[in-house]
Amino acid sequence: MSVEKYLKHMRIDRLPHVWCPGCGNGTILKATVGAIDELELDPSKIAVVSGIGCSSRATGYLNYNTMHTLHGRAIAFATGIKLSRPDMTVIVMTGDGDAGAIGGNHFIHAARRNMDISVICFNNNIYGMTGGQYSPTTPEHSYATTSPYGNIEEPFDLSRLAITSGATYVARTTTYHFVALQNYIKKAITNKGFSLVETITQCPTYYGRYNKIGTAPEMINYFKDNGMTLAKALSTMKEMDPDVNYDGFNVNALLEKAVEKLPEKLIIGEFVNKSKRGYVEKYEEILDKAKEKLASSKA
Ligand SMILES: Cc1ncc(C[n+]2csc(CCOP(=O)(O)OP(=O)(O)O)c2C)c(N)n1
């Protein structure tokens, strides 16, 4: 895609951006714009909503209908937009803190309702904007300003949280796997229901520096070397444990097992892609019923 084509989707008067050198947020923004361009969506029918955080600043650079809202409340605003304008494509851009900590309840309930919104989560495993506090996805033993002796909490797996809450499209990838990322965003937008694209992204300024992982290229190389698709993880685990019937495991159990068996690996791929009636369709039916009742009571 040409630079001109990307710029068409952006508010270039808002540049330069606020992100640190080496930050992965621009890669996710680029993949989102690329996906929207390939889907040839009408920009006036796109609403992109974000909460608060470095990642949530993404909406400011997009030349669609955008809302930069409150910390943790992007999904709540997006739900309101979708219910009042079901004809619009509603996308949420959020961080791991925004979606998994303060916004955790909105996240699970939107997934439970199969609300027709696409959540693109920028998972840098830390609170970037406020200076590097640990988040619900910070791995155990990792360092952050609030865990100088190593994190003692077990992290949330946001993809598993979405799957078990009822999401109908769930995929995880990294900023290294750009082609997959853009493709997953396209599929998430096309899915009629709650979609999550969890993107593991580098924060060299805080997460990388505190954990001595190195510079942005080193972090991206780490994603390249350790990213493993769930299909590959499954075949590896079958070789490791020939007596275990892994074919009988559901995707959630497989992801849980993969973390235990292959702790160094970042398990990526498309985990769920299914069709299920969602809140928007059911709500439209209720509206129709209410209108009918009103019309008959007037007659
Ligand atoms: C109600 C409220 N509580 C706390 C904050 C402070 N705050 C702003 S951003 C943020 C965390 C952002 O982390 P994340 O969502 O992971 O985004 P990142 O900056 O890493 O992209 C916090 C705690 C706030 N703005 N509002």
General description of the model:
The chain has 299 residues and is an alpha/beta fold. It has twelve helices and ten strands. It has helices spanning 3-8, 25-39, 74-84, 96-102, 104-112, 158-165, 178-190, 204-210, 216-226, 230-240, 251-261, 279-298, and strands spanning 46-50, 65-68, 89-95, 118-123, 126-127, 133-134, 169-174, 195-200, 227-229, 266-273. α2 crosses α7 (178-190), α4 packs across α5 and α5 (104-112) packs across α6 (158-165). It is globular, with a radius of gyration of 20 Å. The N and C termini lie far apart (57 Å). It binds thiamine diphosphate (TPP). Thiamine diphosphate binds next to α4 and β5.
Measured by DSSP, the beta-strand proportion falls in 15-25%
The CATH topology corresponds to: Rossmann fold
Order of helices and strands: HHEEHEHHEEEHEHEHHEHHEH
DSSP strand count: 10
The low-confidence parts are: none
